[in-house]
Batch of 3 targets.
Target 1
Amino acid sequence: MRIHVVDHPLVAHKLTTLRDRRTDSATFRRLADELVTLLAYEATRDVRTEQVDIETPVTSTTGVKLSYPRPLVVPILRAGIGMLDGMVRLLPTAEVGFIGMVRDEETLQASTYANRLPSDLSGRQVYVLDPMLATGGTLVAAIRELIGRGADDVTAVVLLAAPEGVETMERELAGSPVTVVAAAVDERLDEHGYIVPGLGDAGDRLYGSA
Ligand SMILES: O=P(O)(O)OC[C@H]1O[C@H](OP(=O)(O)OP(=O)(O)O)[C@H](O)[C@@H]1O
Ligand SMILES: O=c1cc[nH]c(=O)[nH]1
Ligand SMILES: [Mg+2]
């Protein structure tokens, strides 16, 4: 597993407003969308393409287009939905699958309550979206499911990561074709498994505390 932290002043600027407790849901949703677009630029650096011949108004030339099989984008419900539009805007040919997961607030164990994925992901590049990589339990389980279905290149796009979660992913997914792209790696987790300084509960800040 490798991790890439996107070091860019626009990312840092938007992330600071996202962290601010005074930022309302509408602004939070817009900033999450904008941040994903910036992270997606890095996350798709190795997206597969193929050569195509085209005619410009002036002459013939050779270019590239996104190749088949199409990349798969998988937001992890609920909070990952806030990252979906920003990602597919940059990957117009992408197919979208869904995994619904929730973390028990006491035990911090993640469980899966919904799964709508292609059964065969052989040879597919997959982009998993979840704003928060805290203990890592959620992403490890989601990525194991994708690799189990044959995905051979998985990139997790997250807004914030905790060092504890990065370590867990490195240990649990050692040797797997996995990349994490993050806007920042924060200091630590607190005793409730929240990222510090973090931004609070991403799902609640996007969608309320239902
Ligand atoms: O790395 P972990 O310790 O597993 O924690 C991270 C997970 O926790 C949050 O989801 P939550 O369970 O709050 O669900 P939600 O998206 O519905 O709010 C977050 O969106 C991640 O999916
Ligand atoms: O800080 C955290 C940790 C897990 N999930 C969140 O939404 N926020
Ligand atoms: Mg939540």
Note: The mean pLDDT is 97.
Target 2
Amino acid sequence: MTLELDDLRVRTLGECRFDSPFAEMLATKRTSPHYVHEDDRVLVDDTVSVLLARGVPIDRLPSLEAAGPRRKVYFDPAATSVGIVTCGGLCPGLNDVIRGIVQELTEHYAVAHIYGFRNGYAGLTRRHRERVVELDLHAVRDINNDGGTILGSSRGDQCPEEMVDTLVELGIDVLFVIGGDGSMRGAMKLTREIDARGLDIAVVGVPKTIDNDLPYTDQSFGFQTAFAQATEFIASVFVESQAAENGVGIVKLMGRHSGFIACYAALSNNDADFVLIPEVPFVLDGPNGVLRRVEDHVRRHGQVVIVVAEGAGQELLEQEGRTTDASGNTKLGDIGLFLKQKITEHLTEVDLPPTVRYLDPSYAIRSVAANAYDSVYCVRLAHAAVHAGMAGRTDTVVVRWRRRFVHIPMRLITSHRNQVDPDGDLWMSVLEATGQPASFGT
Ligand SMILES: Nc1ncnc2c1ncn2[C@@H]1O[C@H](COP(=O)(O)OP(=O)(O)OP(=O)(O)O)[C@@H](O)[C@H]1O
Ligand SMILES: O=P(O)(O)OC[C@H]1O[C@](O)(CO)[C@@H](O)[C@@H]1O
Ligand SMILES: [Mg+2]
């Protein structure tokens, strides 16, 4: 997708007329290597060749609005009510984001009310309205020490009209949606309904995905915690595989469409000999197939460790009878168990009867509390989201792009998936670290 400058402009509800609590602090600030002034913009591209190829003046290059506090805000803080909802699968750091939003809104903007909706979009429906909780500093004090989300989450479609009725009933001015691609699609339906009714409600997203598969963001929050957690499971099967004759360790990691967790976890301690991801199809049979390569490795080293992303090799599995979850996401076949079976059969056939150690850590990597790095990242995203909302930005998400916090239009975050580029340097690092072939098969 070729982006033009105008595709990157975020929507705003109107002129910012109220004094911001940050006005004084910002009065003398100018862009520096470590700060981007609110009137400045951050470039999307970062290579000379791409910038030159655009062939436009510098001020027409694709660029993003800087996130951060404004000198003036759109909403009168003392009269503002805010809602927060977390949707989709869990991810380390959800509580840190909730806490950061509540603290910033309370301590700096001193808004009138902060409401938490329970269990995702379901919490905005009529039948769950009485379960709305009011959030204050006390309610969020220690929540960063826990995984999950104090608000709960859910999958499954809800009616936008009904959800907007709830926002109106509670007098919500800004809704913060912390969620993945599906949640952002849901949030865009909310803004459409808000627009249709001519309401003055801002919807700001904080993108969340444990799979790191959302575009226009350096890396999603919680991802680092999740892959660090995954590393432990790889280390376990490595130890087990070393101790056994023809030891085979297999770890299946989350990643429906993108193999980032598998790549990073495998690179982290370099115990993996093969990494299989959805972005790089593979064949099992034949002289260059996975089975022969695994066999060769076991013959040479006496053991092997394979890390497989859950979305890898789906084309090798039975497609019939595939169902979807409540949100419409396709339920995948189990590539981990399939590999376990095929590798066991093959090694037994070639007289290398294996001892297989198979781990599917699944929810164990995403249900933990964020590590220190992710906690910092989360609180900074939370602050950016609050400033965006108070400044009347809507249909907008806050992300970190090339280490700067910026605003992007919500529709861009759902425009495509971030995936491991088989021609990119991450996959090259995986190939270098594992020594596996660039492709299996022909
Ligand atoms: N196209 C859509 N329109 C409206 N709502 C949607 C749409 N897609 C998903 N949603 C809603 O958004 C919520 C979360 O979606 P989903 O379960 O797909 O998780 P997600 O936000 O993509 O997060 P993750 O993929 O990280 O688990 C659900 O309530 C779902 O019904
Ligand atoms: O079982 P659940 O809660 O639907 O979530 C599972 C999925 O969520 C994801 O982490 C995406 O959020 C996938 O990688 C994983 O398969
Ligand atoms: Mg999703």
Note: The longest strand covers residues 247-253.
Target 3
Amino acid sequence: MPQTPPTRFAYLGPEGTFAEAALSRAVAPGEGVRQPAVSVAAALAAVRAGEADAALVPLENSVEGSVPATMDGLAEGDRLVVTREVFLTVSFVLAARPGTTLDGVGGVVSHPHALAQTARTLARLLPGVPTLPASSTAAAARAVAEGAHDAAVCAPIAAERYGLVPLAEDVADHPGAVTRFVLVSRPGALPAPTGNDKTSLVVVVADRTGALLDVLREFAVRGISLTRIESRPTRDRLWVYSFSLDCEGHVAEARVGEALAALHRVCEDVRFLGSYPRADGRTNRPVPDESADTAFAEAGRWLAGLRTGDA
Ligand SMILES: O=C(O)C(=O)Cc1ccccc1
């Protein structure tokens, strides 16, 4: 019997990133093989090229908002779908090579989201010291270990992995910040509805009055709550925006499917980014009776009867 090859999971690397920690939450120890990627774009490209089966990437943070590389990477290029979301509480250390003191730090390197989430604390500990962006917190720790920079903001586990020591612990300005990561794959069979799911979309609206209201109405009239909506420039079309949004429910549910079909009629483009179990610890709002699958099915039978003359 030929063996099924192990699932290949790409993640924002190198070893020691929060993305790797999120991947460990999403898949069991020993399940599949893990492939660190140098950037979010590289992780998504590996999936698109068939070099990985899934990618674990950061999507948004409770303090800093969305991660543009992921938002844009999912809105453009061959379509990928979210199959799982993972929420991780992140804590940061300021780490350096052994023997370094705060006085000896001439620059701090990290992922832009980590620098943004620690900006006030860094300004207090290291007034006037410049910060520099890195592709990830672990890439920053590795660069410090290699002597390219003096200090990094990273996860405690990354400091340990690259032989650094903490100059300061818990340097987050807002302790308890949560980052949302997503596991994305090439389109295929969807995760089955669980009764507490989310659906993600990117819609491009026409440049006309009320276009966004038209989008929102399609959700509202079907009793569907949005959990996130934000605008992003389309980048290739000047002043044309897309809206990236998450709503409650699964595309297999009639209300969500009908809303998507309606958006397909009223928007310039609708990109379906998947339906997957909700993992933020919250429960979807109750579905109004008139938006339940049974109500849609009954209305469909009634309409069919009108058309055949049987009703
Ligand atoms: O760089 C990492 O470790 C990541 O996974 C991205 C990130 C950066 C800062 C906060 C949360 C996730």
Note: The longest helix spans residues 293-308.
